[in-house]
């Protein structure tokens, strides 16, 4: 399967939680507080684009690395 195609896959909140090992309730709270990767409302369901989650994780890694750099 093409890497770009898999990055365009949409995940449920449960799949996002399983991927990141973050509780579903936390992810729901983040969405309500407009924190974390942007979810997309599709009818009554919320979906998260895998590429968006991956970009958010990289951003978190960079922020952590920058925070740890000694002054």
UniProtKB/TrEMBL annotation:
Residues 10-60 form the Helix-turn-helix domain. It comes from the Bacteria. This is Helix-turn-helix domain-containing protein.
